[in-house]
Amino acid sequence: MQFTESAISLNVKDVTASAEWAVRHLGFTEAMSAEGFTSLSHPSAGFNLIYLAVGLSTFKPASAAGPADGLLVAFTVDNIDEECERLRAEGVQIVTEIETEPWGERFFQMADPNGVIFQLVQWVEVETQQD
């Protein structure tokens, strides 16, 4: 199987608020939009980020038309500290301060206006303990 494009669709209460947040803080641009729908693109994301209004009658299956709870959207960046400070200065809600996992994943998390959690990651070298 070969994919020609990819997208992630998130159901949110306020499509405009989330879309404007991703454009302003993450550098996405609007690819298309309609009532209750906005598709955003980014030259290095590898997928379109789509926001759908919760409860759209056209959403299938209807049982999954609720808000995007329990979802984490992650992007790898080159300078996690710089990005965290930039976003904090822009007023972005940082929900998890920078942490470094033992396996080298250095990350922080932020929330968009609808509570969707975005995580920025930088992979770093970790020292291994010698016995």
Automatic annotation (TrEMBL):
InterPro entries: Glyas_Bleomycin-R_OHBP_Dase (IPR029068), Glyas_Fos-R_dOase_dom (IPR004360), VOC_core (IPR037523). Residues 1-123 form the VOC domain. This is VOC family protein. It comes from Ornithinimicrobium faecis. The lineage of its organism: Bacteria, Bacillati, Actinomycetota, Actinomycetes, Micrococcales.
